[in-house]
Every structure is written in structure tokens, then in C-alpha cells.
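Researcher: We're teaching a course module on how sequence relates to structure. For the next exercise, students receive a sequence and then see the predicted structure as C-alpha cells, so they can try to spot secondary structure elements on their own. Here is the exercise chain.
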Amino acid sequence: MSLSAAVANGAAAYRYDTIQPVARLRFCGLRRKAHRLHSPRYSRHLVAARRSVVVAATAGNGAAASGTFDYDLVIIGAGVGGHGAALHAVEKGLKTAIIEGDVVGGTCVNRGCVPSKALLAVSGRMRELQDEHHMKSLGLQVSSPGYDRQVVADHANNLASKIRSNLTNSMKALGVDILTGIGTIVGKQKVRYGKVGFPDNEITARNIIIATGSVPFVPKGIEIDGKTVFTSDHALKLESVPEWIAIVGSGYIGLEFSDVYTALGSEVTFVEALDQLMPGFDPEIAKLAQRILISPRKIDYHTGVFASKITPAKDGKPVLIELIDAKTKEHKETLEVDAALIATGRAPFTKGLGLENINVVTQQGFVPVDERMQVMDATGNVVPNLYCIGDANGKLMLAHAASAQGISVVEQISGRDNILNHLSIPAACFTHPEISMVGLTEPQAREKADKEGFEISVVKTSFKANTKALAENEGDGLAKMIYRPDTGEILGVHILGLHAADLIHEASNAIALGTHVQDIKFAVHAHPTLSEVLDELFKAAKVNTAGSHSMNEPVAV
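Model: And here is the predicted structure for the students to work with:
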């Protein structure tokens, strides 16, 4: 989930694994308040188009597609986005099919979110057991913790298999037709699919959703052998734990793998093209994260450099990484390491979709869409009945964003206009401790405020003041909120600390529902819980009530 020309030239390639591509630091610019998103103020012709869809009011997959189509909805790609759309479509009574050329679950389940969390669960346990001071402070004694690499790898693989089976069974149980093969759009509302060596099949659909996801992005000059120089796809198999590994890119992917490798005994060197580590994060959170997640561990780093050439280890020689200055392109030095993980993010998987058959031209590989995920053709017009969700459209490269976009599309084709507020979608980095965020960073919020002419305020609270965190001896952490003091609108929330990935949802839901600070500060939180970190954060905000109103107070009409 378009990128600037710099990405195509390699100048910004290392930023693919941040929340959004470099050119979309404004989270695709959707700034409607959530409580206005379902407003009926859409065009009459759109209403008529939506209402023309015949929705079968039957349980399970629709008994028959409406009109003369084979299906009401065909989804190309059975990742998390396609799966979410398929289940919601069945709930709406639409006869639905999903086409998958590889395995159900896509990147997230098979080569991303799911197996990586299994490895991170192991690294978290190891890190805790290795912290002798922490154990002793709790009165615990642990001697020489160790691990079995193959069992760790099996844990990740088994988890992926289980979740993949669950997704497949859930669709089958609801009557979704799972069609095996590569899907290609051959014309308006027509899709061809099939496997190599077998005859192709052609089906028609009232609506089509493209949900083909992404693949690892490998910059030019880097030779992948899958053993000593590899992407996250290979790393998740954990076929080895190198003594010294270079990680190219310090975004989400690189940061999480640094957590895994250092916990298992590796030394890590980051290679980052930009001038600071973790450039996609709020700067204050990134600075604190560097102090907690980088400095105390066996990690060093090179910033402001490109890995212009990486050669795999062979004939007894180590992996060679040639570094050049990101600005001058002059040679800086050559690193010799045992392995290199290329964590430069992901690129859209959109080749072979047949987009040329419907006059659609990709932008840096991404399928152009409007705010309703409707595909746009080369002339800038909407292609009727064709949508694209997830990594393939470039809006927000997160599995749950893909699912949310798919559900939004199904709402539209079922007759309800729906525009997803991407600023309300949270993101998380599952390091130890975790990092999470939703909305704008402080620099982004200040830029918006300067442009639109309003003030912003920032409040913070520390995990050191939280009883539950102190009981766990996990007081390192910070929660930060950026908001408008004139209205109480929440612009962004950022958390680094214990279970930050779970805590962020109260803030993301507040943004999605249009709940302002002056209202949410009255919410009651159980004591003692980590949720009180957010409670204290909301209570610390000061809102000019003369210029705003509370949802709990009567409003003059």
C-alpha cells in the first residue's frame, strides 16, 4: 500500500516498512471526523448504484448471484484483507468466491504478522529469563536459560499452519467458494483463473475486489541467497541464528527482528538510509525507544548510508556489505558479517492482474484508488464495480487496514456508503517493550495546525506512575497524546511500554467514533491496570470548554 519518485530510484527504498510509504506521511490524507463518515451526503447517482445491488436475505453464502452474474462478489487474493471482505460479504447475503494462487492467509498468516509473533513470544520469554536483576527483584532464581532453535522454528511454523487452517475452515463453513489459481481480470466484471498446466476458468461477478497484497522489496545491488542474505520471508523460518547479523532498514520489520536475534544471542548492526533510526515513528518515541531497545543491547548502527551492494557468504568468505553515503553516494566502508536481513519493506504484488485490459495503470506498482477503494483508470475515472484493498493500493500497509478496507467495500456494494478513516487505524511494533500509535505524529500535527490555523497541545504520562507496571517491574515507558485544546479532538496517541499494542485501541476507537478528550476523561478504568496509563493521559488534557461542547452535555440547537 503512491510512492515518490525517490522510491523508484532507491533513494527512499528503506522506508517501505514504516506505517506508510514516504510519500504518504499524512496517512493518505483522510481527515473526516469519524462521526461524519456515515453521513448520507453522497451523490444521488451513487445511491442509485448502491441500491441496484440485490442483496439476498439468506443465511450463509447467497443461494444465487443477483442478475446474470456467477457471483455477487469475487475477491482476488485470500489474505487477511480478502478473508475479512469475504466473511462480511456472506453476512450481507452476497454470493462470494475468493481466488488464491498460493495459500490462504497471504503474507500476514504465512510469512508476516503471525509467525513473527511466535518468534517474538520466544524472544520475550528469553529476554525476561536472561534479566537476572529483574528476576532477583521479584525473588526468582533462574539458571542459564537456553533454547532449541528447531523447536522455536517449529512453533512459528505450527502457529501459521493453525491460523491458515482456521481461516480456510471459516470461509468453507460459511459457503465461500475458494477457487485455486492465479486470478486475472480479462474485462469488465470478468475474471479468469487457473493453475499452470490446467485449463483456465472464466467467471463473472457483479463486483470484484483486488486483494493481492505485497512481497518483500529488495533494492538493486543486493543478492539474495536465502541462507546468508535473506528477506523476512526466509528469516521467519529461523534456519539459523547468526553470531553477527546486519539488518538493512530500521522500521517495524527490522526493529522486531533485532528483538528476536539479540534475545537469541546475535549481535546486530542496523543499516539505515535516513539520518536517524526509526524515522517513521514519532521522534520523541523513537528517541526513547533507542534508549530502551537499542542502546542496552548488542546493537550498533550506521545511519545516512545505503547498502549499495551485498554479496552472500561463500567459499569461506563472510557476507560483504558495501556502504555509500546516502547524499554524496561516496563509498564509506565495507562491513563483513555472518548474515544480512533485508528489511527494506514491501512492494505491491500487482503484476499479472490484467489491469491493462481495463485501462488501469499502476503507480510504482500500486493500484490507484479513491477514498472508497474504487479503482481509478488511466484517465482518472472510476472503474465501475472494481475495488482494490490492502497493500496493493498503497494507502496503509497493515493487515488489519486491509481487512477494514474490505469490510468498507462490502458495505458500499451492499447499499451503504462507507468511507474508512485511516487516521483511526492503529499500528504496533511488537518489541519488548512494545510500541504503538494511532493518528498523527507531533511533527505531522504541527504541520497540519500551521496550515489550517489552530493550536495543538501535547500531554504525556509515564509508566513509572502506573501501579500495575511497577508491580511487574516494567516501569520503562511513555504515553503521549497530541490534541486540539480548542475542541478536544484527539489528533494522535503514541505509546511505548508494557502491552502498548493492546492499550492503543482505546485511543483509536475514540478517534474512530469522534470522541473528544473532554468526554473520554470521564471513562472509568479498573484499578490497578495498565489501562490507567491512558486514563491519566486523558485526564491530563486541558480543553477550552468555552469553545467546545461535551457529548454528555445538552447542546443548544
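Model: If you want an answer key for the exercise: The chain has three domains: 71-216+347-414, 229-344, 424-540. The longest helix spans residues 149-173.
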